[in-house]
Design a protein that fits this description.
The chain contains eight helices and eleven strands. By secondary structure, it is an alpha/beta fold. It folds into two domains: about 120 residues, Rossmann fold; about 100 residues, Arc Repressor Mutant, subunit A (Orthogonal Bundle). The strands form three sheets. It has a five-stranded parallel sheet with strand order 2-1-3-4-5, sandwiched between helices. The chain has a four-stranded antiparallel sheet with strand order 6-7-8-9, covered by helices on one side. Strands 10-11 form a two-stranded antiparallel sheet. The relative contact order is 0.11.
Length: about 230
């Protein structure tokens, strides 16, 4: 699962890309205009940005340059009808990590998104096994001792995100930003309720929770079943 920002003014193409990426369980936010994209990149975090070159108001190249100039590190896939060597060079020099010409195949785009995600400092295993729990990412399946555990989409996304970042603890606000859409009505309480539901489904009675509470920080995956941190 990745949180993806798609910036594309061709609504028909955008809809097909959103449908395909969501089918692969990604959280996709979509906007058509360059200024809207700049605002979202300023205030919200994404794992990958798919950015059209030709946009109303602000071009994709201008967005790229401004985002990189202020220190933005999110991988960006530039999507455009321009396929000349000079144009490709302009896009890459402006800060794009990859380049795909239109019309594009959704499977190729999806593969390139996954490749960009692998370049980041995350764990990209397909199947996780942790303390008797098995999480199969491609099949979107969680089980314990062969018995399937039914998770809601956001519960699965939250679990996958924590598994892919095992060395980090995340605040409620950070999890809200990374798992939920920026235009959703979700609140910090939504995250806490989701964590409670997830724990009730995947934890084993009388054993430390797989999702550890890190005092004054937030939540972290607990690979080894460590006892809870004492409060200061």
């Amino acid at each position: 699962m990745a949180k993806i920002l798609l910036v594309e003014d061709d609504t028909e193409l955008a809809r097909s890309l959103v449908d395909w990426l969501e089918l692969e369980h990604h959280n996709v936010e979509y906007c058509e205009r360059g200024n809207d994209a700049l605002e979202r990149l300023k205030f919200f975090e994404f794992d990958v940005v798919i950015l059209d070159w030709n946009l109303p108001e602000v071009t994709g190249i201008e967005i790229l340059k401004e985002f990189r100039d202020r220190g933005g590190m999110t991988p960006i896939l530039l999507l455009t009808g321009r396929d000349g060597v000079a144009e490709i060079e302009i896009g890459l020099n402006a800060g794009a990590d990859d380049y795909l010409t239109k019309p594009c195949n959704v499977r190729e785009l999806s593969a390139r998104v996954k490749a960009l995600m692998r370049r980041q400092n995350k764990v990209y295993e397909q199947v996780f096994k942790i303390r008797g729990l098995e999480v199969d990412i491609p099949k979107h399946r969680v089980s314990r001792e062969g018995k399937e555990i039914k998770l809601q989409p956001k519960e699965f996304s939250l679990l996958e995100f924590l598994l892919r970042n095992p060395n980090d603890a995340f605040s409620v606000e950070s999890l809200l930003s990374r798992i939920w859409s920026s235009d959703s009505d979700a609140s910090p309480d939504t995250v806490r309720v989701c964590i409670t539901r997830l724990r009730n489904k995947i934890d084993v009675a009388d054993q430390p929770s797989i999702i550890r509470t890190v005092h004054r920080i937030g939540y972290q995956i607990d690979l080894f079943g460590n006892p809870p941190e004492p409060k200061a």
